[in-house]
Amino acid sequence: MGNSVYSPGTLPARLTPHEYEVNFSDINPGLSLHEAMVEADRCYFCYDAPCVTACPTGIDIPLFIRQISTGTPRAAAKTIFDSNILGGMCARSCPTENLCEGACVREVAESEPVEIGRLQRFATDTLMDENIHPYKRAHETGKIIAVIGSGPAGLACSHRLAMHGHNVEIFEEKPFLGGLNQTGIATYKTVNDFAQQEVEWLLKIGGIKFQLNKTVKDLEDLHKLTQDYDAVFVGAGLGDVNRLNIGSDKFQEAVTFIEELRLASDYGNIPIGRNVVVIGGGMTAIDAGVQSKLLGSENVTIAYRRSRSEMGASEHEINLALKNGVKLLTNAVPLGMSGDGTDEKLILGRTEIIGGKIQQIEDTIELPVDQVFMAIGQKLEFGPGSLAIDAGKIVVDSHGRTSVPGIWAGGDCTNLGEDLTVTAVAQGRDAAEDIHRHLSK
Ligand SMILES: Cc1cc2nc3c(=O)[nH]c(=O)nc-3n(C[C@H](O)[C@H](O)[C@H](O)COP(=O)(O)OP(=O)(O)OC[C@H]3O[C@@H](n4cnc5c(N)ncnc54)[C@H](O)[C@@H]3O)c2cc1C
Ligand code: SF4
């Protein structure tokens, strides 16, 4: 794991241990009981609430907020988990400004939505801190389902299947469970090993076994699983990344850098450049840029080939980056490097969008650079053999059924997704319900 480059200008331990502790502390700490009660009181408990429609897992938001306001946060947590078993992580990582809070009537009327995400965190933390797992399994059905991948999609699918009394066996190629909850979500959104604790809490349902360091490689593996198991669910995410063909050892994959950070026991061991450029415009680019700053980099620039309004990251995230001192350079594409040693520069060509297409114009800029992080998208690594693929993703119907009977899929690896934790949870859960219906026939 990791592809750290020690080149001139790229150094570990730029900050003191105290500075790392402050920089990587919880960006949005939990509410106290009093704060939660005050916030819950702001909800209008709307009939046909738009926040519910905007939540990909369809949590009954007015109900759980009312349960908080009536002093029953454990019941509120149960309302959340009934729809979203990873409600704790989603409360920390969802771009709520684009989902429930973006649709809240108080956002529309007053630009101040009810803080649904923080209330969700308050409720789920209350139950999880007491180590209560509020579900029991139905009677054993004797069926066993193989789940490939233990990210949000695989975990949500496994939990729902286990609840229905089926047995589950997860195959996970990493030495730990959790997928991008463990290796992708920015460190400051999920502190204190929350992702690991959440997995342990989820497994308390029982009936879920797992094999770590176990890659389901190819069509042959997959077909064997369909013979040995009653159903197969693929939640393999997007394990590969798009790369730029610029021959320089200063170029690194942003997701590898982020994974290294998430798994680090000491941030002081992570080398970071004085001058960093991140190529891309999505959430990964923002996370790489912000975390470079937090590690002590002096100049961080996110370079994106189109305009700000076309960036995949939300305005909220872009503003977070700007607030942390990250610079934004739009309409710029990397072309190559100039100079050498401590004096290397990244050459970027200016672009214009003509008829929706990117055109490079006769204008270049050079930025001093010690490290360049590529955050230009991920792609399917899983070799799906005979599964139908569209635009590089596994084709599924609204129940998560693939083109091969007996195989379901969900999350980032499918063509349904918006590549968010919460949509992966929804798709894993819905596929589990469909598998259950199929096996109960
Ligand atoms: C850097 C980064 C930051 C992000 N930040 C956010 C955020 O703040 N909020 C948000 O909502 N979303 C965020 N996302 C997106 C979110 O993490 C994903 O949409 C979500 O994790 C997808 O879940 P998944 O279960 O489909 O896949 P993953 O989480 O990718 O899990 C797939 C699992 O399958 C395993 N696997 C893969 N191939 C095989 C195989 N052949 N055999 C066995 N196991 C295999 C992998 O090791 C992995 O554990 C971020 C993504 C990235 C990359
Ligand atoms: S839209 Fe806002 S005010 Fe209405 S129920 Fe949802 S959170 Fe409450």
Can you describe this structure?
This protein is an alpha/beta fold. The protein folds into 3 domains: 10-25 and 240-374, FAD/NAD(P)-binding domain (3-Layer(bba) Sandwich), CATH 3.50.50; 33-129, Fumarate Reductase Iron-sulfur Protein, Chain B, domain 2; 144-238 and 380-440, FAD/NAD(P)-binding domain. Helix content is 36%, strand content 19%. The chain contains 17 helices and 19 strands. The chain has helices spanning 17-23, 33-40, 50-54, 61-69, 73-83, 87-93, 100-103, 105-110, 116-129, 152-163, 180-183, 194-203, 219-228, 254-263, 283-294, 315-323, 421-440, and strands spanning 10-11, 144-148, 167-171, 208-211, 231-234, 240-241, 251-253, 272-273, 275-279, 299-303, 327-329, 332-338, 345-354, 357-368, 371-374, 378-379, 389-390, 393-394, 407-409. Strands 4-3-2-5-19 form a 5-stranded parallel beta sheet, with helices on both faces. A 5-stranded parallel beta sheet has the order 7-15-9-10-11. A 3-stranded antiparallel beta sheet has the order 12-13-14, with no helix packed on it. The longest helix has 20 residues, at 421-440. It is globular and about 70 Å long. Flavin-adenine dinucleotide (FAD) is lined by residues 93-94, 148-154, 171-174, 179-180, 184-185, 189, 215-216, 235-237, 239, 255, 258, 283-284, 287, 381-382, 411-413, 419-422, 424. Residues 43-46, 49-51, 61-62, 65, 104-106, 114, 116 line the site of iron/sulfur cluster.
